[in-house]
Amino acid sequence: MNTHKSMSDHVKIISFNALVKDRNADVRVTSDNLVCAADLTGVMTGKNCNHANECLRDLDPSLFNNDKFVMRGRSRYVTFENAIQLIMVLPGKIAKETRSQFADIIRRYMAGDQSLHVEIEKNAASTSPIAEMARASLDTDPALERIKKRQLELDELSFQERQLELQSKQASIRAQEIENVLKFKSIMDMLDPTWERDTRLKLNTKDWVLNVAFGQTNTKAIENGEAGQAKLITISDVAQKLGYRLKQGDLTTVGKRVAKAYVKEHNENPPKSSRFVDGAVRDVNGYTQRDWGLIEDVIKEYVQECGMEGA
Question: How many domains does the chain have?
């Protein structure tokens, strides 16, 4: 079928002159893609305008219901989808030949004819009125809308199922973590019944329990910008990072200054942590990653006083 646009900006013309010889084969199409039913019927049946309208009025409602017509004044119009259905029930040689073409396309589709890909891609890129009307009809096809709606429902159902599965896995992992917490306490009680006297270890243990067993500390720490701040550090760690190797006497002096700076900043003594020092377990000041800046400032001030050079 050859197609072309009319001179009017408001009406397109579809021409079936490849099928129809020696007579008018033009079918008018409105700007909103409605096909003139009388024109289409005339082309398909070979009847003139009056007889074409009579043919439309006499259609068996069981084959094509009058509700499918869109009335514009006294003229009948049909959508692209209904135009195809109309061709399927019209009498006449051209209608029969067109139905044969439809049947051939369906046969090739059912057979999986790969050559249809080329034709489909060509139609997808075509700017002909028929191709444009067909694409426009897909956007308002109720059947496709139902398919899209059903797919959205299936996607939502699948998402909910995945969420339930994830929650089940998380509950199982949480139960295992709680069991690990109880095992940890049991082992610590066995190794050192006084382990809870270590303030820093107790605080770290509390954070760990809240985090792994109940998922509380992690969120709060992130919100406060304190994620990972509970890790224990030493004055030597900070000094080495700055490039200084402090001797034991220097570490003792810096340690006293850091403790004093900690009290000044927090209005309390640094928490204690048990460490193995000089061959024995001793309670020493325990600092964490959040104290890094304070320790760094004290070290820089000390090495500047002493005129030390970096490693």
Answer: 3
